[in-house]
Amino acid sequence: MEYCCQLHCGDYQLALTVHQPEAALGNDGQRWPAVVICHGFVGTRIGVNRLFVQAARCFEQAGYAVVRFDYAGCGESTGRYGDTGLTSMVDQTRAVLEYTSSLPFVDADRITLLGHSLGGAVAMLTAVQEPAIRQVILWAAVAHPYAEICAITGPDVVRRAYEQGGANYLGYTLKPGFFDSLKRHCPVDAAAQFTGNALIVHGAADAEVPVRNASLYYQQLERHGACCQLEILQNADHTFSTPGSARAVRTLTRSWLQSRRSAEFDWKIVSLENGGVVDGRTHRQGFFDIHPVQATGGRKPTSASSYSTGD
Q1: 79-93 pLDDT, tens per residue?
Q2: Which of 102, 217, 219, 298 is 20 to 30 Å apart from 273, CA to CA?
Q3: pTM value?
Q4: Who's near 39: CB < 8 A, 6+ residues apart?
Q5: pLDDT tens digits for range 153-192
Q6: Does 286 have pLDDT greater than 50?
Q7: How many CB atoms lie within 10 A of CB 117?
Q8: Is 263 exposed, middle or buried (0-12, 13-18, 19+ CB in 10 A)?
Q9: To which CATH superfamily is domain 2-144+186-308 assigned?
């Protein structure tokens, strides 16, 4: 089931679509893991070729609640996009997280942030400010916001913004404050503070955001203790716009989510004799006790994966 609503956030009314797993209907008291989707630069909660709609429904079918929303000035949300910046987007994302946590069918301790493009940068910046967020998914994520967004808009747009107080880009008036906010944040550096689980996916044919960003995030996260998986999708562009690449990214992400969900319920056998920890699922009466414990994230991949989308 899915429904739309509005969330008051400062001066803005943010438009949200909430997906509730079918299994959650009529199951009062049972709570489900959730995914919050952060769209990219001048995007919407729908996505190119309905990328986020299809992904949300895919995750919903796998037993996840999903919340996707429009940043202020985008889609159906109020406000003017170019008046805000990264700091405001982080604040908006935190407000959506608070709302998601309050939903009666959501487990507030199992919310994953998924961000695409500039939304990936926002997701990472938000995650390091929210200790409850232990999982992040980055799709074609921006790593250096000012340089990469300026490369997308082109230097003339940036110059006019500063000279004239604003410049049009695809119908959005981008102001100097917007570009200034991009300069103040470096999400790939902030990733050093995140030690949870992370999935990084990037298209090998991405012509807008450098595919090397995926390796930069992976190296930073893995170096500082995160359990990180990196996947490069051959033939996929920045928005995963072909049917094959869209199907690949959502299927891969769903599988990763389900593997992390399974890991949450893994059992570890704690030796009562010497206090050591032994992995396994068997129980010998009198020598071992079985205790459910928080997952440690499982094995870390030692290399990146790459496969064709079939397009």
Answers
A1: 999 999 999 999 999
A2: 298
A3: 0.86
A4: 45, 47, 52, 68, 69, 70, 71, 74, 116, 117, 119
A5: 999 999 999 999 999 999 999 999 999 999 999 999 999 9
A6: no
A7: 26
A8: middle
A9: Alpha/Beta hydrolase fold, catalytic domain (3.40.50.1820)
